Each structure stands twice: as structure tokens, then as C-alpha cells.
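not sure who needs this but someone in the group chat was asking about 3-methyl-2-oxobutanoate hydroxymethyltransferase from Punica granatum so here u go. i didnt clean anything up, its just raw.
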Amino acid sequence: MALNRALLRLRASTSFSVNATRSPTSSLFSAIRCLSNVPENTVYGGPRPQTSAERVTLNHLRQKHRRGEPITVVTAYDYPSAVHLDMAGIDVCLVGDSAAMVVHGHDTTLPITLDEMLVHCRAVARGATRPLLVGDLPFGTYESSANQAVDTAVRVLKEGGMDAIKLEGGAPSRVTAAKVIVEAGIAVMGHVGLTPQAISVLGGFRPQGKNIASAVKVVETALALQEAGCFSLVLECVPATVAAAATSALRIPTIGIGAGPFCSGQVLVYHDLLGMLQHPHHAKVTPKFCKQFAHVGDVINKALTDYKEEVTSGSFPGPDHSPYKMSAADVNGFLNELQKMGLDKAASAAAAVVEKTEKLESPEGENSGIN
Ligand code: KIV
């Protein structure tokens, strides 16, 4: 196939894999998703459009930041959520390890594995062709050594189809990890403030930067991650004053979550912003900073209850949702075969359905289809 050949050629010009995807906003099977580090004029694939209307790269984010335009980031974990983000024109799609909680139902982000994250990454890469794709390095896959960090980051790009990775924390070993991953040619987003992977030492999901020492630490670690080469930083659950100070001190964009309005952009978790989990328990544990832009969970609950009622009462599926028909001749043949097989009861059941359907479709009773 021509498309396969194009993909092979593209692979030859880069060490990373690419995904051929159908653009969700167009019916043309034409969009080959290039990673952000594919050069603008690919040698063998011909020049490819690099406008932010086509796909977002680090350059577009830098330009937006320079112009003071807020950057939009949302998490996604599967094909449908990725398609929704793409259609909404979100700049960055973060395959967050929050998947452990909102998709897998764990109480923390710690249990999710790299293999599980890679499944989420691949599904998202198939669904989102325009946003920059950032994949989280899960807990336990990058802390041991710089080599481990690079190996994991490479897998997130090669096997997950991501454009960049995100890692949490600003301890010296994390700054080193960020630096070596960038040196390996992989764009890194940092994450400071509340870093959920460190829940064990933080003593819970607690806001950070609320006293002088902690606020200074947020700014210091942000600066260290910038020096390590991060292209952007998530600031999670810090006072707006601290986020404003960090944003002002940095040259790279800050992406806030529970960090007030004075960041270069904002990120929210897909399920939180859509109001997916409307069970009273989840409503209680949804973070205070999260605005629900919809109550999709209520819509889902109502649809499932309606479905259950209609199946129970027999009103679904009705004629409108029973589209498959047999010709009158085939019905006759089928009834004869059933009788030959000794399945008289089954033949009567089938005949009764034909009669009932005929009555519903032409109440005058013409042409029953059974002789
Ligand atoms: O895992 C995640 O979803 C995140 C965001 C909350 C920034 O890290």
C-alpha cells in the first residue's frame, strides 16, 4: 500500500515510529501523524504542513507563549477521549498516569505500569492527530538511574507514539533524569508542586508552596527543571501567588492545575472537567479546584437507566432498531428447513415474528411473506 510505503520512508528518516491515522475532523485518510521532532520538510515524504491547524509542535507552544496566549492541556486515555480533544482544538493531550485513578479505579497513581500506560498512549495517538502528545512516565520506571529514565522515555515515544514525556518532581535525581532524556532527543515536561507519585513522602494529596520554604522550593525546582531543558512545567496545587512567581521567573510556559489563573496555560483531567463520575463518593473526592464544565456522568446514568427500563419492558429494540430483513422467499425456505430439522416450535416462533412485523409495518395486512 502507498500509505505503508510512505510510513516506511518516514521511519527511515527518523528513529521513531509514526502512526497513520484518520483525521477525526476530515473523512480523508490522509493524515500521517509526524512526531514533533520530524523536520518540517521531510526528505522522502515531501514537505508536510506544520501549521498549528494541522498539528501542534513545541514551536507552536513557544509562539503561543511568546504572544501571551494561554495554552490548553487536557488528559486523555483512549481513542474516543483523544478524538474529542482533537476536535475541540486542545493544544496538548496529556496521557496522564491519572489513568490509574480515573480509568482503572485505583486510589493513587502509583499502581499503573509502563505497559498499561503504553496501551493508553497508543489508543490516544490513534485518536488525536493535531495536539502535541505528552505521555507520563509512571511511578517506578525512571527513578533508579538516568539509563532507566532514558529507556522508559524512549519506549513512550517508540511504542506509545507520543511526542514528548512528562516526569514528576524536582529532586536532583529528577533534574538529572530530565536532562539526560532531553539529551537523548526527547522533549520533557516537568511537574512540580503537588506531585502525586510522591504521595508517600508528601503524606497525602496536599497542596504545596503554602509556606515560605515550600514556596521557594517550588520556584527553585521549577528553575532547575528549566535549566535541565524542560520545554514546559506543570504546577499542581500551589497558591496563585507562587504560580505567578514561578511563571514570571521562567522562560518556559507553566501549565497550572489548581494553581490559579497566572500560569501560561491550564490542564484538567478529562473525567473531572466533564463531570463523568457523579456518584456521591466521587463528587466528594473531586478536587476543589476542578470546575465541571458538564455533567456527563448524569447523562450516562440516565441513558443506562432508560436502556435498562426499555429492555425490561420490551420496548427496545423496536422496529426502528431491527433493521435486518429476509426476503419472503427466504423466510419460507427457512421455515421449511426448521420443520425438516424437527424444530416445529422454532418455526412457529419465527412465523409469529414475521406475522407481527408485517402487521406493524402494513397494518392493512398485505403480503405477509409467509405462504
Ligand atoms: O496524570 C495527570 O493527569 C497529571 C495531570 C493532573 C497534570 O499529571
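also The pocket of 3-methyl-2-oxobutanoic acid is lined by residues 75, 94, 96-98, 136, 191, 234, 257, 267, 269 (CB under 6 Å). if thats useful
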